[in-house]
Design brief:
alpha+beta; Nucleoside Triphosphate Pyrophosphohydrolase
């Protein structure tokens, strides 16, 4: 899943489009927030991260392998059970699917 940080002074939607384009070469339409997770430090320092995931529609482009993307695969929602994923990803994908279906 593409991801990254919002740069100082950058709007969230601009960062979303930039990160997806940089990491995958895809153009997408952001539909809505599909979930979030917190990553709390296990020891002092290191920061506290909030990871926000968004539902999006593929508009144009094909994935291009690069320094940040060494492989890709298209998966049908609901078929992630055999993959090693971040905790909570299946729920976020289900939420994204629901958001897309409702629009």
């Amino acid at each position: 899943m593409p991801g990254g940080r919002v740069e100082f002074g950058e709007a969230l939607h601009v960062a979303l489009h930039r990160e997806i384009a940089e990491e995958t070469a895809l153009t997408v339409e952001i539909v809505g927030l599909s979930g979030w997770r917190e990553v709390l430090p296990k020891a002092g320092g290191g920061g506290h991260y909030v990871i926000m995931s968004f539902a999006a529609r593929w508009i144009a482009g094909e994935p291009v392998l690069n320094d940040e993307l060494d492989d890709f695969a298209w998966h049908v929602p609901g078929t992630l059970s055999g993959l090693q994923t971040t905790e909570g990803l299946a729920e976020i994908v289900a939420s994204a699917r629901s958001i897309i279906a409702g629009t």
